[in-house]
């Protein structure tokens, strides 16, 4: 994780670096720092501290200079401290680093610098190595150093003897570069640079960019010049404020009706599903005999909804993998296996590495990705973009609902191709799908009812969530949401499982959230609710309106859709529930402790 930025140009660097770091803070917010070249002192001056970029901003208003690098950290090697914050300087080389240098312990010994290091980080070794090889040619020095580093890295580098240039190199961890009127820029994500340029490029792996005021030159490790492909900057990235909402998470919850609508309507035409605009090779759908969904966290939960729908409508086996476990679990891959990777950021390293592994083993691949031109999107044979727009809050909301929506589309497409659905059935299916945005809108309009229910949870330390059938994977997502932003320990269970052990934990102080949207499971779920109620649990119910013949006080009535289409509105309601618990507890909803939005370490 970590966010890095670099600038050289005609304006003061400090303001540009701080502003960029604020938009990269989603990648980590344990500490932050900047290094700016100071002409009087003839060196890169570094200021860094634990805490947020706002804290750093207050400490750096005296920094002057037009060339600099910056970093916002998610700690891996070395605790959260001022000295472990980046930039790190060794000799005349200053660096900021995103990634993990896996051979740092060996390097420490072979370079004999144990007693000279000022931090406990792996990153400082990159500065040591580059400084060792620097002898007036920065490209040669970086190239030699990089050949000795193992692991993942994106580095931005400054040399005290080169006042106006920033250098950058990467392996796996992302770097984008662009030039604008005021100078040249590099960053971990284009979101930090979108306001400065109309086009940018992704730095190819194992190549070095020399970034000067006037131009950016890219070299391979043998110092040959290369010309990366330019990409147009997505204009939607240029305006990504909170629009008056207290937190991005609430803004993003409220954007879901339009995000889902955009995702669905561009791919449904006269009741048919089409991926024409996505340039998908439709052979992947007709050829596939089994599907492996690979993803992490929330994206993996969307995959579980996909599994339920695809298996029901297409009669194709779907296995959902935690990306971090995929390649170590001896997955069965053949030419007719379709791998579907799901990722909001498109940068999650576990998912990316799993995708590469599947491709090496001849799987066909589609990725469902939100961030355009991200690493997973580039690596995948086919990409379906969720049209959710930038998602800034660490807790994923609109990415999940749009990813889930895409799985319904894929199910419809395969079912049609495999003749599991006739024209009328397909028409009914897509027609129901198109009702989802309105159902989510209805929920958002009744947020006060959800708020009232969430207040019952404020003093709880633990919570359980129970549901059956497709309500269970929906609750896995709801439970993750509650945990990550409210710090309440929460577990979701398939209701029937509870009495096989976990019911021992139910007491009067354990709230149980019940989700009931499936007609065929109604009476069984009601029995399971009664079992926990009779052990004193406070039950908060999210229940489809038409099922509520005898509802208790603590009940939220979900809008009516056919049962199979209920997970998206159900989760939207439970996202708001978790949001209110977190904000009423006075927590930083958008930046929960210990987390980062983009997970680029394995
Ligand atoms: C969601 O709220 C989480 N922050 C997290 O589980 C996330 O979904 C996961 O890290 C995967 O990220 P990706 O979609 O960017 O790959």
Relevant terms:
seven-stranded antiparallel β-sheet, eight-stranded antiparallel β-sheet, binds 2-deoxy-2-amino glucitol-6-phosphate, alpha/beta, 3 domains, 24% strand, Rossmann fold, 27 strands, 602 residues, Glutamine Phosphoribosylpyrophosphate, subunit 1, domain 1, 19 helices, single chain
Question: Describe it for me?
Answer:
- With 602 residues, the protein is α/β, with parallel strands linked by helices.
- The chain is built from 19 helices and 27 strands.
- Strand 21 (364-369), helix 12 (375-379) and strand 22 form a beta-alpha-beta unit.
- Bound molecules: 2-deoxy-2-amino glucitol-6-phosphate.
- Residues 296-299, 343-345, 348, 351, 394-396, 484, 599 line the site of 2-deoxy-2-amino glucitol-6-phosphate.
Topology:
Blueprint (H helix, E strand, L loop, with lengths): L2 E7 L3 H12 L6 E8 L4 E8 L2 H7 L7 E7 L14 E3 L2 E9 L2 H8 L12 H10 L4 H10 L3 E9 L6 E6 L4 E5 L2 E5 L11 E4 L4 E5 L4 E5 L4 E2 L4 E2 L15 H7 L1 H10 L2 E2 L2 E2 L9 H5 L2 E6 L1 H18 L3 E5 H4 L10 E7 L5 H12 L3 E6 L5 H5 L2 E4 L12 H20 L5 H11 L2 H10 L1 H8 L7 E6 L3 H16 L2 E6 L17 E5 L5 H12 L5 E6 L10 E4 L8 H18 L18
Helix pairs in contact: 4-5, 7-13, 7-15, 9-13, 9-17, 13-14, 15-19, 16-19, 17-19
Gist of the model:
By secondary structure, the chain is an alpha/beta fold. The protein folds into three domains: 3-239, 4-Layer Sandwich (Glutamine Phosphoribosylpyrophosphate, subunit 1, domain 1); 242-434, Glucose-6-phosphate isomerase like protein, domain 1 (Rossmann fold), CATH 3.40.50.10490; 444-587, Glucose-6-phosphate isomerase like protein, domain 1 (Rossmann fold, 3-Layer(aba) Sandwich), CATH 3.40.50.
């Amino acid at each position: 994780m970590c966010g890095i930025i670099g600038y050289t140009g005609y304006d003061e660097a400090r303001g540009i670096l701080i502003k960029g770091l604020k938009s990269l803070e989603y990648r980590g917010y344990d500490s932050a720092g900047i290094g700016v070249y100071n002409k009087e002192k003839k060196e890169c001056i570094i200021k860094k501290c634990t805490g947020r970029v706002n804290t750093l901003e207050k400490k750096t208003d005296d920094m002057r200079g037009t060339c600099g690098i910056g970093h916002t950290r998610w700690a891996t090697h070395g605790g959260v401290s001022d000295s472990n914050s980046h930039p790190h300087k060794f000799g005349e080389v200053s660096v900021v680093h995103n990634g993990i240098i896996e051979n740092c312990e060996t390097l420490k010994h072979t370079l004999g610098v144990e007693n000279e290091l000022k931090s406990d980080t792996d990153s400082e070794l990159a500065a040591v190595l580059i400084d060792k090889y620097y002898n007036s040619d920065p490209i040669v020095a970086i190239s030699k150093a990089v050949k000795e580093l193992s692991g993942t890295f994106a580095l931005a580098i400054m040399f005290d003897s080169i006042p106006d240039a920033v250098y950058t190199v990467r392996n796996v961890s992302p770097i984008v570069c662009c030039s604008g009127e005021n100078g040249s820029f590099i960053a971990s994500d284009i979101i930090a640079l979108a306001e400065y340029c109309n086009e940018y490029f992704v730095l190819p792996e194992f190549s070095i960019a020399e970034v000067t005021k006037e131009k950016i030159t890219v070299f391979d490790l043998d110092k040959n010049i290369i010309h990366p492909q330019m990409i147009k900057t997505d204009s939607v990235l240029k305006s990504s404020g909170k629009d008056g909402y207290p937190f991005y998470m609430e803004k993003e919850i409220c954007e879901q009706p339009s995000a889902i609508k955009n995702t669905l309507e561009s791919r449904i035409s006269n009741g048919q599903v089409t991926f024409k605009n996505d340039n998908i090779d439709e052979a992947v759908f007709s050829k596939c005999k089994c599907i492996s969904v690979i993803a992490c966290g929330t994206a993996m939960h969307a995959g579980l909804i996909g599994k339920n729908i695809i298996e029901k409508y297409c009669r194709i086996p779907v296995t959902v993998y935690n990306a971090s476990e995929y390649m170590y679990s001896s997955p069965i891959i053949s030419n007719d296996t379709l791998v579907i990777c799901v990722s909001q950021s498109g940068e999650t390293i576990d998912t990316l590495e799993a995708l590469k592994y599947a491709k090496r083993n001849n799987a066909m691949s589609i990725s469902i990705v939100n961030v355009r031109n991200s690493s997973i999107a580039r690596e995948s044979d086919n990409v379906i973009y969720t049209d959710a727009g930038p998602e800034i809050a660490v807790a994923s909301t609109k990415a999940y609902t749009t990813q889930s929506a895409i799985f319904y589309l894929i199910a419809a497409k395969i079912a049609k191709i495999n003749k599991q659905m006739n024209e009328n059935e397909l028409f009914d299916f897509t027609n129901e799908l198109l009702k989802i945005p309105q159902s989510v809108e209805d929920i958002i309009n009744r947020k006060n009812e959800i708020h009232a229910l969430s207040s019952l949870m404020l003093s709880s330390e633990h919570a359980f969530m129970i549901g059956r059938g497709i309500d269970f994977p929906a609750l896995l997502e709801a439970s993750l949401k509650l945990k990550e932003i409210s710090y309440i320990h929460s577990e979701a269970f398939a209701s029937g499982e509870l009495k096989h052990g976990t019911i021992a934990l139910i007491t009067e102080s354990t709230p149980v959230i019940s989700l009931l949207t499936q007609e065929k499971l109604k009476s069984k779920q009601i029995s399971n609710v009664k079992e926990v109620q009779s052990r004193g649990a406070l039950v908060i119910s999210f229940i489809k309106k038409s099922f509520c013949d005898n509802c208790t006080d603590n009940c939220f009535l979900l809008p009516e859709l056919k049962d199979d289409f209920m997970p998206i509105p159900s989760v939207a309601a439970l996202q708001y529930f978790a949001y209110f618990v977190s904000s009423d507890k006075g927590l930083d909803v958008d930046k929960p402790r210990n987390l980062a939005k983009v997970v680029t370490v394995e």
